Amino acid sequence: MADDPPRTRIQQKNRAAILDAALEVFSQHGFRGATLDQIASASGLSKPNVLYYFPSKEAIHEALVGGLIDTWVQPLHDLDPNGDPVEEILAYVGRKLAMSREMPRESRLFANEIVQGAPRFGTEITGRFKALVDEKAAVIRDWAEAGRLNPLDPYHLIFSIWATTQHYADFDVQVRGILAPKGDEHFDDAARFLAALYRAGLTPPDPR
Amino acid sequence: MADDPPRTRIQQKNRAAILDAALEVFSQHGFRGATLDQIASASGLSKPNVLYYFPSKEAIHEALVGGLIDTWVQPLHDLDPNGDPVEEILAYVGRKLAMSREMPRESRLFANEIVQGAPRFGTEITGRFKALVDEKAAVIRDWAEAGRLNPLDPYHLIFSIWATTQHYADFDVQVRGILAPKGDEHFDDAARFLAALYRAGLTPPDPR
DNA sequence: GTCTATATAAGGATAGAC
DNA sequence: GTCTATCCTTATATAGAC
């Protein structure tokens, strides 16, 4: 997974340019829809030159996904079992929504892959990904059992948070087609909405 | 939009077989990733024979999308302004989740298209689609202003319902990778979770 | 390291026999 | 209506000069 880093500055710069261009192209067109021509022209290099840095189109895609997956699960990783349950989950929602705002291309890269059955994800989902979700779901379950959280299925809670937050990146054209925002203001409205929805859903019933 | 229906039984049968095969292939691989070879072999016809019924790959895709879009928005269309606000919205959530369970290929067909920027959707989104959403958002806003619903942004409420329900179709491999259900039982858990979340979020604060 | 030229394969679409 | 054979474009990847 961790290749030897390239030696010269030029190599680093070109590799980075290729990966940035590839993120743009793969996230917009999917793996199959993306062409090396598009990646080459977006990176400012010639097509054979791109293939000098990466052996194949698939290798570029792998390098992208491999480099991003850790970033992608970081918000869930940061869910603190020692924090206040409702506030911790609301903060998680906030981090995920911020990622949709700041890294929409990465979100669509993953979405493209998963919608199409994750043919290039190998054991990532059932491996460390599932392990992290299981761990955090157990934390949420314990919170609920201690009466500090309205008892909700922790797995479906996590799914709903992924769905609602990633929606603003993955279905961006639909959201913008309906709201017609000038810039990113609608993310602030989304943040308020999601905070209100999840606060109401998560706050445990008052035992009095 | 409404082509003349084919005349003979054989034509109807073959057209239907092609559209069903195309739904399977387009939803799994996206427009670009799908090939006429795959569609032909899945429909049991030869490639030229497929092109006898439809003039091009794009025409097959158009016929599919055009035929499905009305079905797709029906659940929102059925939201009744004269019903009980909370129950109406919960019923809408239920209808959308049922569609993800029963029509996952259709959901992924749309998801593929929208994630990639809806290049073949034309004015559907900003046209009648947006008009319907605007209409129903106004209904929800009125309910909230009458104090019959916890005041939440109606647009983001609708987005969240789309996101949470379609997630079970669009991200099916991820959901199954984490839950490892034998069949569709997890949809019942999802239904219970979403009902609880939205009931808590939508019920207006008791004015006493 | 980067380019031009090209090999090779896949895929959309058509021609024409039956 | 359906098939075989084929055209032609696009796209991945490589060869080899510079």
TrEMBL record, chains A, B:
Top-rank lineage group of the source organism: Bacteria
Entry-linked InterPro entries: Homeodomain-like_sf (IPR009057), HTH-type_TetR-like_transc_reg (IPR050109), HTH_TetR (IPR001647), Tet_transcr_reg_TetR-rel_C_sf (IPR036271), Tscrpt_reg_YcdC_C (IPR013573)
Keyword Zinc-finger tagged: no
Keywords linked to the UniProt accession: DNA-binding
Annotated region of DNA binding: 35-54
Domain HTH tetR-type residues, every copy: 12-72
Pfam family, any one: TetR_N
UniProt-listed PANTHER family: HTH-TYPE TRANSCRIPTIONAL REGULATOR RUTR (PTHR30055:SF196)
Name used for this protein in its record: TetR family transcriptional regulator
